[in-house]
Amino acid sequence: MTENLNAATAYSPFTYPFLMKTIFDAFISYGRADSLGFGRKLYDRLREEGLNIWFDQNDIPLGVDFQNQIDDGIEKADNFLFIIAPHSINSPYCAKEIELAIRRNKRIIPLLHVEEIDRHLWQQRKPQGTDEEWEAYKAKGLHSHFNNMHQAIRKINWVYFREGIDDFDKSFTGLLELLNRHADYVEKHTQLLVKALDWERQQKQNRWLLVGDEKKQAEAWLKIHFNSEQPPCVPTDLHCEYITESIKNGNNLMTQVFISYSERDRETMEKIRNSLRRESLTVWTNTTDVQTGEDFQSAIDRGIEQTDNGLKNK
């Protein structure tokens, strides 16, 4: 059954001072050649609605690593807005942004802005361009939004913002409705992702795990399923590991499932383990639960003694 978590359950930065980081309502990904003006307009209108938006013209400080700042912005944004135009579709930089949004299981909302550019506009951008160069440009599909489109963008319903064709205000209202749909769930996805990434970057030390009410809230979030509609986003494997490891840590390392397997079946074991974690079940495996310097057999014996169920891969 579909549920939403109350925004009041958001994690307090005073509880975790290291997480006093800005969370954005959306990250805008775009190609400057075609959509800089539109991106600015969209940014301004979203800001007028009280939303906190990551837009690289405003949000990359001088003297910092450009790609790291972009990656950080995507990870800390609830929604990934991708402005579709020939430049963005064919940009390797925008492709990197899309790939990271996919890896982090972000809610991706494509906005169709420019379908294709004509010879006149191309010539303005390249005054010395020849007929042969224009034909080669078209042959590669670089003039169009369609030929080289990422499959993840192609299969998602778009919001239409084509200049001179679509009504901006009407499309903008539709975009706001999308951003508000299951907003609490999507926001929690971002909050937990940021914490899980911090945990991962600190070598998954136990002191970075969730405790108390935050752990309970995270477990409740993980149990939410959208049975009658498509979810706005889904937990990553890292979300699931982080939350279930927090549960395990709070239960004195007691687990619900012990997985026994042979090395040749490791890939299958990992799929099973990830599926169990997605259902908020705690799992013991030799790849995650043998402590540094601990005798291997003793660790296995302890794992068996402290688990509710054994699962053997035959």
Structure description:
The protein is an alpha/beta fold and 314 residues long. The protein has 15 helices and eight strands. The protein is elongated, with a radius of gyration of 23 Å. The relative contact order is 0.11.
Topology (SSEs and partners):
Layout: E1 24-29, H1 32-48, E2 53-54, H2 56-59, H3 66-75, E3 77-84, H4 86-89, H5 92-103, E4 107-112, H6 119-125, H7 131-139, H8 151-154, E5 159-160, H9 168-180, H10 183-201, H11 212-222, H12 237-250, E6 255-260, H13 266-278, E7 283-284, H14 286-289, H15 296-305, E8 307-312
Parallel strand pairs: 1-2, 1-3, 3-4, 4-5, 6-7, 6-8
Helix pairs in contact: 10-12, 11-12
Q: What's this, in brief?
A:
Helices cover 48% and strands 12% of the residues.
- Total beta-strand segments: 8
- Residues in β-strands, percent: 5-15%
Largest sheet, in brief, is: 5 strands, parallel
Helix percentage range: 40-55%
Overall geometry: elongated
- Oligomeric state of the chains in view: single chain
Mean pLDDT: 88
- Give the low-confidence spans: 1-20
What's the total helix number? Answer: 15
Rg over CA atoms, rounded to whole Å, is: 23 Å
CA-CA gap between termini = 34 Å
**Main structural class:** alpha/beta
Strand order of the largest sheet: 2-1-3-4-5
SSE order, as H and E?
EHEHHEHHEHHHEHHHHEHEHHE
